[in-house]
């Protein structure tokens, strides 16, 4: 890939004169993420790639016959990468019954009944507001829908409610309370009829359009099912993808390292222009707030509970096999014991396999033992964070604090410490959580406060700077999925995957970063999103 990029750079710059279709962005605040040339004011795009980055004085050879966009000082960044997202899960929710924003149980009832009247199958809705969940149970849903299974859940999916027919379908007591968590949620959810390939394709179109409008050009699907992988591949073959997609394939610890051969074959079959299935996902534990995260020491509010674990020798064997096959290894680890187990497994693979181009990530890092922080830099492991979760008052944050106790809670989501220890940091939304916007995510990472600044930051020492947060959404996220030869920085020879913003993130108050508007999103020079009022040359 690097050789191809170098050859392309030679072709693009061999003759510095305008070519038909050249596009020039001028008078911009171009922040390149390229340490050799951090700032520029102009970019020339030719045949979908960047042909020139520099100041206005270098534009003269390119001007004749080119289309010129005067940015009037607007900021230009590499296209945003969402480093941990569930695009098709969220896209399907865009097609399904949405309960978010309901203000009362009466409004919730009306929306559920409307969905029941529009479908002949299961009633399946997402987005129950947390404040309304307290008034729900099986009897309530039975009264709302009597003739078919009904299953509704919160946006994060951690809590759900089911009527009698849905409980029975999941093998649960049909006269139970109907309030579901953990495995019970999974049992009932598994009985909901799966989407069709056409459903997935439509969901992908919708979520791609939304992502593009927010400046996103590349995503890392952190939990793609086989059906989702097929949907991505089909869309890529049809030329429909307006995002670069790297997807994980699920790894079941119970199947041991032998399953990697099948994952490898799938990886090779699915490699296309904008889609790759070359990552592997392991869940090492669950959630802090549910006491299912794996802990080194028992929970403060549950002295007999430390959460589930995967036998270390089994995890070592699986990770070593994935490592030998060159997979991008992506681990969900919320508890400090899970984080340590993941680091141990990666270190074991390094000792067995020797030097290699590793881009391993451990995601979420709900709490990390301080003794393990230096290992991120030493082992070259990237910490993948969801900065939305850092803010006080967020629903999972408070119960997680209580579960950990005050001393361990100091090490929740230690993004600043991972960076200080020499580890890379990437940022993702984990959408369909609350927000998909990278600008929201950058502000959360910089402030660790609600967007309105209404509460002080917990662990303010774990905040990172604006430049670091931008890098986590661009250059470093591109590196983590082996796209760094293609995009992630603005430099000659790379794809023209760019986003234009209406204000310079380095010049505005950090509490106003989320108010920044995306004016233009380009993928290989093609305008995927043009904001109303922004002048685009035809």
Per-chain topology:
Elements: H1 2-13, E1 23-26, E2 29-31, E3 39-40, E4 42-46, E5 49-54, H2 60-63, E6 67-70, E7 75-78, E8 80-85, H3 87-95, E9 97-98, H4 105-118, E10 123-126, H5 130-133, H6 138-144, E11 150-153, E12 159-162, H7 164-169, E13 179-181, H8 182-189, H9 197-213, E14 216-221, H10 226-237, E15 244-250, H11 260-269, E16 275-283, H12 312-324, E17 328-333, H13 336-353, E18 361-364, H14 373-379, E19 382-385, H15 397-404, H16 406-409, H17 415-420, E20 425-427, H18 438-447, H19 466-472, H20 475-480, E21 498-501, E22 518-523, E23 526-530
Parallel strand pairs: 1-6, 2-7, 8-14, 9-10, 10-11, 14-15, 15-16, 16-17, 17-18, 18-19, 19-20
Antiparallel strand pairs: 1-4, 2-3, 4-5, 7-21, 11-12, 12-13, 21-22, 22-23
Helix pairs in contact: 3-9, 9-10, 12-13
């Amino acid at each position: 890939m690097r050789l191809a990029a170098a050859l392309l750079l030679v072709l693009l710059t061999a003759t510095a004169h305008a070519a038909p279709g050249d596009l020039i962005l001028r008078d911009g605040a171009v922040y390149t993420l390229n340490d050799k040339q951090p700032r520029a004011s102009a970019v020339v795009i030719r045949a979908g790639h960047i042909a020139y980055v520099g100041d206005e004085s270098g534009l003269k050879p390119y001007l004749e016959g080119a289309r010129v966009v005067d940015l009037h000082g607007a900021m230009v960044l590499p296209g945003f990468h969402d480093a941990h997202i569930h695009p098709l899960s969220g896209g399907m929710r865009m097609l399904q019954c949405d309960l978010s924003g309901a203000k009362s149980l009466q409004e919730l009832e009306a929306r559920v009944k409307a969905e029941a009247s529009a479908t002949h199958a299961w009633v399946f809705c997402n987005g129950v507001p947390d404040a309304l969940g307290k008034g729900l149970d099986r009897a309530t849903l039975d009264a709302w829908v009597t003739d078919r299974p009904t299953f509704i859940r919160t946006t994060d999916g951690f809590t759900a409610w089911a009527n009698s027919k849905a409980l029975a379908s999941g093998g649960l007591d049909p006269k139970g309370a109907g309030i579901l968590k953990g495995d019970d949620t999974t049992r009932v959810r598994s009985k909901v009829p799966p989407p069709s390939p056409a459903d997935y394709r439509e969901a992908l179109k919708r979520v791609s359009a939304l992502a593009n409008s927010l400046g996103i050009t590349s995503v890392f699907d952190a939990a793609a099912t086989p059906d989702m992988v097929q949907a991505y591949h089909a869309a890529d073959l049809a030329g429909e993808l307006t995002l670069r997609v790297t997807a994980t394939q699920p790894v079941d610890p119970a199947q041991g390292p032998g399953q990697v051969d099948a994952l490898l074959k799938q990886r090779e079959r699915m490699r296309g222009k904008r889609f790759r299935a070359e990552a592997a996902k392991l869940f090492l534990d669950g959630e802090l707030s549910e006491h299912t995260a794996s802990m080194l020491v028992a929970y403060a509010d549950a002295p007999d509970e430390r959460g589930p674990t995967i036998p270390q020798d089994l995890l070592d064997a699986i990770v070593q096999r994935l490592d030998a096959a060159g997979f991008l290894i992506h681990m969900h680890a919320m508890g400090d014991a899970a984080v340590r187990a993941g680091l141990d497994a990666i270190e074991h693979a390094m000792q067995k396999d020797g030097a290699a181009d590793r881009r391993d990530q451990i995601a979420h890092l709900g709490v990390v033992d301080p003794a393990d922080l230096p290992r991120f830099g030493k082992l070259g492991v990237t910490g993948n964070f969801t900065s939305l979760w850092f803010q006080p008052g967020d629903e999972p944050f408070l119960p997680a604090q209580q579960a950990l106790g005050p001393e361990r809670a100091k090490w929740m989501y230690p993004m600043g410490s991972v960076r200080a220890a020499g580890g890379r940091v990437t940022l993702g939304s984990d959408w369909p959580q609350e927000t998909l916007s990278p600008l929201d995510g950058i502000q959360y990472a910089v402030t660790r406060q609600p967007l309105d600044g209404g509460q002080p930051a917990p662990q303010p020492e774990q905040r990172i700077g604006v430049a670091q947060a931008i890098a986590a959404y661009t250059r470093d996220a591109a590196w983590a999925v082996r796209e760094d030869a293609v995009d992630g920085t603005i430099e000659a020879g790379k794809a023209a995957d760019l986003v234009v913003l209406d204000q310079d993130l380095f010049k505005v108050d950090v509490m106003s970063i989320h108010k920044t508007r995306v004016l233009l999103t380009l993928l290989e020079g093609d305008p995927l999103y043009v904001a109303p009022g922004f002048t685009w040359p035809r």
